[in-house]
């Protein structure tokens, strides 16, 4: 990952997660939301020796103060096939995080699509509502509410912009939203937490939302946008159709302990 993207990614993560740095890894933890996996993980440095990975795992729950293991390898790490096979046999989930980026110099669409909105009290309320509904489906109502309470001040003060998509031009029914975090120093924006309610998917709303987010980023002086997707997502081709190109892959390892 280039330094510019790494800086923006670090800034975004540290909005909700504290960090402790050690010689060969860093611990990112959110004590207010330990159940949110994306807020709590070990980031390995490129100096971390892969032959120490398995012996390292038992210490991870104590480092994170959680009942799960969540470790992200350095982008410079490449797991040998035998390591992946060993991890899977021992019950670990091994996935890839894929980084996609797109320059905005040739992005022609103007902001202000009739089915999208951002930067208003109504869009803030509507976007927060959609985020809460969507999260509740996957992490439960209580965790979704806690997550929203944690991030709402960032939405309210504009640190993270919520861009909302509506079912029609009346903008009465919000059906999707996404986060836009802008690093104005580097002129790089991160697109995150893109969500379209299930019943409205595959109807063109995702393209409308993503296009509005890129237009909003360009309007605010950003030169590049990027996002992180799971290697298991079926939407990576969708991003590529919008002009995104993959520039980095990073292995992630997860194991949840039932209590």
Task: Tell me about this structure.
It comes from Bacillus nakamurai. This protein has 259 residues and is an alpha+beta fold. The protein has 2 domains: 3-98 and 251-256, Aminopeptidase (3-Layer(aba) Sandwich); 106-222, Gcn5-related N-acetyltransferase (GNAT) (Aminopeptidase). Helices cover 33% and strands 30% of the residues. A hairpin with a 3-residue loop joins strand 1 (18-21) and strand 2 (25-29). Helix 5 runs antiparallel to helix 6.
Compile the SSE list and pairings:
Elements: H1 3-13, E1 18-21, E2 25-29, E3 41-44, H2 53-56, H3 60-64, E4 68-72, H4 81-89, E5 93-103, E6 116-118, H5 121-139, H6 141-156, E7 160-166, E8 174-183, E9 188-196, H7 205-219, E10 224-230, H8 236-241, E11 245-256
Protein name: Acetyltransferase
Organism: Bacillus nakamurai
Domain N-acetyltransferase: 117-259
The shape is globular
Which structural class fits the helix and strand makeup? alpha+beta
CATH topology of the largest domain: Aminopeptidase
Number of domains: 2
Strand order of the largest sheet: 1-2-3-4-11-5-10-9-8-7-6
Number of strands: 11
Could you tell me the mean pLDDT?
95
Gyration radius over CA: 19 Å
CATH architecture of the largest domain: 3-Layer(aba) Sandwich
Distance between the termini: 37 Å
| Beta-strand percent range | 25-35%
- Helix/strand order, N-terminal first: HEEEHHEHEEHHEEEHEHE
Oligomeric description of these chains:
single chain
Major β-sheet annotation: 11 strands, mixed
Number of helices: 8
Low-confidence stretches: none
**CATH homology-level superfamily of the largest domain:** Gcn5-related N-acetyltransferase (GNAT)
CATH class designation of the largest domain: Alpha Beta
Give the fraction of residues assigned to helices. 25-40%
């Amino acid at each position: 990952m280039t330094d510019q993207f790494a800086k923006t990614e670090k800034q975004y993560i540290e909005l909700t997660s504290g960090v402790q740095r050690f010689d060969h890894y860093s611990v990112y933890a959110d004590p207010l939301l330990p159940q949110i996996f994306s807020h709590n993980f070990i980031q390995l440095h490129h100096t971390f020796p892969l032959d120490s990975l398995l012996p390292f795992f038992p210490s991870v729950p104590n480092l994170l103060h959680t009942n799960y293991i969540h470790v992200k390898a350095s982008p410079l790490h490449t797991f040998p096939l035998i390591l992946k096979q060993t991890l899977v046999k021992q019950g670990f989930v091994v996935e890839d995080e894929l980084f996609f980026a797109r320059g905005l110099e040739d992005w022609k669409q103007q902001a202000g699509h009739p089915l999208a909105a951002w930067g208003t009290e109504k869009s803030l309320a509507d976007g927060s509502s959609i985020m809460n509904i969507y999260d509740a489906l996957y992490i439960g109502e209580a965790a979704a509410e806690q997550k929203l309470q944690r991030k709402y001040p960032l939405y309210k003060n504009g640190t993270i912009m919520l861009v909302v998509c509506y079912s029609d031009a009346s903008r009465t029914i919000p059906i999707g939203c996404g986060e836009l975090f802008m690093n104005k120093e580097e002129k790089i924006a991160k697109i995150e937490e893109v969500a379209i309610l299930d019943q409205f998917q595959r109807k063109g709303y995702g393209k409308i939302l993503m296009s509005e987010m890129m237009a909003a980023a360009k309007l605010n002086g950003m030169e590049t946008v990027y996002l992180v997707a799971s290697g298991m997502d079926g939407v990576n081709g969708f991003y590529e159709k919008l002009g995104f190109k993959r520039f980095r892959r990073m292995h992630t390892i997860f194991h949840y302990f039932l209590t």
